[in-house]
Amino acid sequence: MSSTIVRADQLLYTPEEAAAVLRFGRSTVYELMAAGELKFIKRGRSRRIKRCHLEEFVNALEPQSH
User: Is 53 in contact with 38 (CB distance < 8 Å)?
Assistant: First the structure.
């Protein structure tokens, strides 16, 4: 298992870095991107997620009631 280091001033995140920040699995982040729930930028074969899009995603999450 590799540890991902994410800087506080980072503007763009790889899906793996975004997963570490969100505390989700990597495949979950890819599923969210594919479903359009998490915006991303595609440049060639690379995908990057803006910090503001991570914040928008988290702010849109609804708390679960038991």
Answer: yes
SS3 label, residue 57: helix
Report pTM: 0.83
Q: Which two tokens stand for residue 41?
A: 């930028």
Taking residue 18's Cβ as centre, other Cβ atoms within 10 Å add up to 29
Say if CB 18 and CB 54 are below 8 A apart. Answer: yes
For 11-60, the pLDDT digits (tens) are 999 999 999 999 999 999 999 999 999 999 999 999 999 999 999 999 99
Burial of 16 (0-12, 13-18, 19+ CB in 10 A): middle
- For the chain, give every domain's residue range: 13-60
